Amino acid sequence: MQDFKKSAVYQIYPKSFLDTNGDGLGELKGVTAKLDYLKKLGVDYLWLTPFFVSPQNDNGYDVADYRNIDPRYGTMADFEELSREAEKRGIGLMLDMVFNHTSTQHEWFQKALAGDPKYKDYYIWKKGRPDGAPPTNWESKFGGSAWEYVPQFDEYYLHLFDKTQADLNWDNPEVRREVQDVVRFWMGKGVRGFRFDVINLISKGSFEDDRQGDGRRFYTDGPKIHQYLKELNQATFGRDPGIITVGEMSSTSMENCFRYAGADSHELSMVFSFHHLKVDFMGNEKWVLVPTDFQKLKDILFSWQQGMAEHNAWNAVFWCNHDQPRVVSRFGDEGEYWEQSAKMLAGVIHCLRGTPYLYQGEEIGMTNAGFTDLSQYRDVESLNHFRILRDKGMSQESAYNILKVHSRDNARTPMQWDGSENAGFTSGTPWISVNPNYKAINAAAQVDDPDSIFSYYKTLVQLRKEYDVISQGDFAPLDPENPSVLAYRRSWEGTELLCVSNFYRKPCTWKCPVDLEGYQVLLANYPDSKPEPEMELRPYESMLLLRRN
Q1: Residues 424, 507 within the same domain
Q2: Is 148 one of the annotated active-site residues of the chain?
């Protein structure tokens, strides 16, 4: 049984990973075809974003059938083959379960619309106000009201996301049993992990107007959330200690995460939190252009590292996923220092206390999309917010510049396998444009190069398995107020590891607060890095320094 503290998880967005039949959409067979590549990288689990039957209004996060595979991704036989072939290589599959809501095309919602009282109670319905307005002023995370009116009932249903994603009523025990059945079904197919989408939103609090925000304080980390997760654990994955779980925690608190991912809380193995990825937002507002707050980034990373450790709880650590811009574009450099900054960012995350997650293409330094026209965008959130920004009076150019930085489509361009047409992703027309830099940035150019970004990630994945100080060690920040350097120390049974990184393209001088006698360079992104009491750090220079007592 693989220890999840020593593991690395690789996230696959199947639609953009590899297309083997030329229809422009990646599919399960494409994942199977690249298992040897993933084995070479050394990852232990593959998190696959949803490939279930879906109208694809939110790229599969609007599930219409939890037990069947959308034909555009293949068949159950394809999934079973993928599962077998992954297991042969020592890789487990982690499925992405969307249990806060279903598609309005789901059989349950369709029965609800037909007036079946059993299934109507699977969802959250409220009468409007006397003037016909929605029940509360809550806003959908995709823009607009979180309520949709249904004339035949003279009621509204709740949708925290798109109006085709109706929120499930978890206060109904039958809903909870249905969800448990789905998890057991996939466990029976050999699945070794589950990622639960926005799982901390399933327990709603009071339904009242939010005079301070968009409503999230009434449905985030709700009153029965821990009860419902314990129930799910006990009825399903908790029966198999070999299964790992991670919860996506939207706008969560650290105090709740101590419980979600506490070693003895019997809820989840680990949690995703996103506070560190809002440091280029204005508060919670994503659709603005503001500089990255580096001090805030460090404060958040360090406080979560220390707080979770103090409460014996476990983090998932990451920069990238299908909802985030490419990290090398966001916090690194797309130009002269592309390689150095990509390696620096990798080292920072992979040596933290927590299970590291890599998103497809991160291991080769893929960058933001570089789209030049609105017609290239596919993401419902991006298109909605472009319209909202324009309606507020923003110029087309300004709104467009925000999309270039923040759109989720930045992560969804096809995986860049080689320098052939469409980056080797498809022989057809890709569902979304390939990043034009694929001839320079692709897997084929890196996989056998010992100095490549790919090889750097491969080494980091292996170091976590080799050194208990990385997987088990205590965490302490170093020089946390430094305006240019992100540095920390890990300690375990006499072994010390320092991670020191210049986060900027401007060189800087750094006085190390630790006596460096006995430290050796374990890994660095410049070939001649060395530990010195006063280091002249080059642009994005990063080094891991190890000392064994």
Answers
A1: no
A2: no
